[in-house]
Design brief:
The protein is built from eleven helices and 14 strands. By secondary structure, the protein is an alpha/beta fold. The chain binds phosphoenolpyruvate and manganese (II) ion.
């Protein structure tokens, strides 16, 4: 249920509504928009329906949220959310590109790539320390040591860092050393993990599952927000279809569709979507044209020798050339990069 407050509702009136919702055993979620303040009441539908909310002072309207996901829906919050860390905010006019290697392989390689992607205009360094690999015999990541190298790269370059969390046991480490916490495709429906990241404040980059619908993705985002962390960025990274010429199929329509359904920022990962270096440029351009708020791109100084995802990784010079092109497209789209 959403409770829309009258313009100019006082803090005492807002607090009173919140107390009533809590007394009914439900959880209030406050959203202060430019034009109006809205309170989402989440919990037992019957308990909420029985509350005489309409007659409380300061209340304008009480409306059911028809979608299965509530807090992440545009019905709950009509204005787009601007979410991020430090100065890197996604969902506004400014676009952001997160770039870096698939996996952190060493301190030197990471800092070298970080310097190059920063010079080209990236604002976030990506790099996996805990890697979800299909084969148990493939490189699994440097784990805690890799997280330390990310923190070093952050200190050396000033870039913010994004890295994947696979296990709640590593949450404390990542929450204190990484700016953005990535929940990977394979864990999009690991509901315990989603609840855990609901308990921190770091923005969470939630990647769409291999066979997840848009609704599934939004319900997974709802898990994080309902558990206390409103800072979620959705990432379209391609889904499994019958087409096997590309690694995955980039669902470009998902970008404007999600932006209609949800107030959360949406980014696109063209690297995992296409799985091929030559597809990164066209998919990146398509993503921005479709309304994405940013991109996540894999870059490696020597893709032939990369320990994971070399075939889809751009070389630093290719990344810099792409950034120049993206900047021109951003200007055309009325956005900044
Ligand atoms: C990644 O970003 O390194 C990754 C493993 O991506 P995904 O979860 O989209 O496969
Ligand atoms: Mn990868």
């Amino acid at each position: 249920m959403i409770i829309v407050l009258k313009p100019g509702a006082t803090q005492a009136e807002i607090d009173h509504v919140i107390e009533k919702i809590q007394a009914a055993g439900c959880t209030p979620h406050l959203s202060r928009g430019v034009e109006r303040t809205i309170i989402g009441a989440i919990g037992d539908e019957t308990a909420i329906r029985n509350l005489p909310l309409e007659i409380l002072p300061g209340v304008d309207q009480v409306l059911p949220i028809m979608k299965p996901y509530k807090l992440v829906s545009r019905e709950f919050k009509p204005e787009s959310s601007v979410i991020g860390a430090g100065g890197v905010l996604l969902g506004g006019r400014r676009l952001h590109v997160m770039a870096g290697p698939c996996a952190v392989e060493s301190r030197e390689m990471l800092i070298g790539i970080a310097r190059q992607v920063k010079a080209a205009g990236a604002t976030v360094l990506r790099g996996g320390a805990f890697k979800p690999r299909t084969s148990p015999y493939a490189f699994q990541g440097l784990e805690a040591e890799g997280v330390r190298f990310l923190a070093d790269a952050r200190r050396e370059t000033g870039l913010l860092v994004a890295t994947e969390l696979m296990d709640p046991r590593d949450l404390e480490l990542l929450a204190s050393s990484a700016d953005f916490i990535q929940i990977g495709t394979r864990n999009m429906q690991n509901f315990r993990l989603l609840k855990e990241v609901g308990g921190v404040r770091n923005p969470v980059i939630l990647k769409r599952g291999l066979a997840a619908t848009i609704k599934d993705l939004l319900l997974s985002a709802e898990y994080i927000v309902a558990n206390g962390n409103p800072n979620v960025i959705l990432c379209e990274r391609g889904i499994r279809t019958f087409e096997d010429y590309t690694r995955n199929t980039l669902d470009i329509a998902a970008v404007p569709a999600i932006k209609q359904l949800s107030h959360l920022p949406v980014i696109v990962d063209p690297s995992h979507a296409g799985g091929r270096r030559d597809l990164v440029r066209p998919l990146s351009l398509a993503a921005l044209a479709a309304g994405a708020d940013g991109l996540m791109i894999e870059v490696h100084h020597n893709p032939e020798e990369a320990l994971s995802d070399g075939p889809q990784s751009l070389r630093p010079d290719g990344f810099a050339a792409l950034m120049d092109e993206l900047r021109r497209l951003a200007a055309f789209l009325g956005r900044e990069l």
